[in-house]
Design brief:
The longest helix is centred in the first third of the chain and has 25 residues. 11% of the residues are buried. It is globular, with a radius of gyration of 17 Å. The protein is 46% helix and 23% strand. It is built from five helices and five strands, in the order H-H-E-H-E-E-H-E-E-H.
Length: 149
């Protein structure tokens, strides 16, 4: 099939499949590296990453999984958010995918809101990702165990 014969919808579907496959492969590789995490030898890779790509890839993957649920999805991106930053793209995608997936998984109806912004300081910039939902929430006991092993 030649590129000019591909409809925009088909091309979009191929892009989602490619991105999803890539993310899943990276997650599998990280599971295989679990021994590095347990040994305290996990390396964080600081490289330039593309913020719109992270948002798009993660949101598309999650929406594909939960598109049958009656949930309104709201995406807010602050116009002052930079297009790229330095950090570990894979780890950011993993964390974002996990939190966004949980928001959809534990929300039966209502909405999930995802906002993206950045907080700038003199020497650095922090990407701020906020996710809120109308799901069941966590019990006080679950919250207290949040950062336990």
């Amino acid at each position: 099939m030649q590129k000019e014969d591909t409809s925009p919808e088909t091309e979009e579907a191929f892009n989602v499949i490619y991105s999803s496959g890539s993310l899943l492969l990276n997650i599998i590789n990280d599971i295989l590296d679990l021994s590095k995490i347990e040994a305290g030898k996990l390396e964080i890779i600081n490289e330039k990453y593309d913020i719109p790509s992270i948002i798009y890839d993660t949101v598309q993957l999650v929406l594909l999984r939960y598109d049958s649920k009656p949930i309104e999805f709201i995406l807010k991106i602050d116009e002052n958010t930079p297009l790229d930053l330095i950090g570990d793209e894979l780890r950011i995608k993993q964390i974002l995918n996990n939190i966004l997936s949980n928001a959809f998984k534990y929300t039966e109806k209502g909405k999930v809101e995802f906002s993206v912004s950045a907080e700038r300081a003199e020497t650095h910039c922090v990407l701020v990702l906020r996710i809120s939902d109308t799901g069941q929430g966590m019990t006080e006991e679950q919250i207290l165990k949040l950062f336990d092993e």
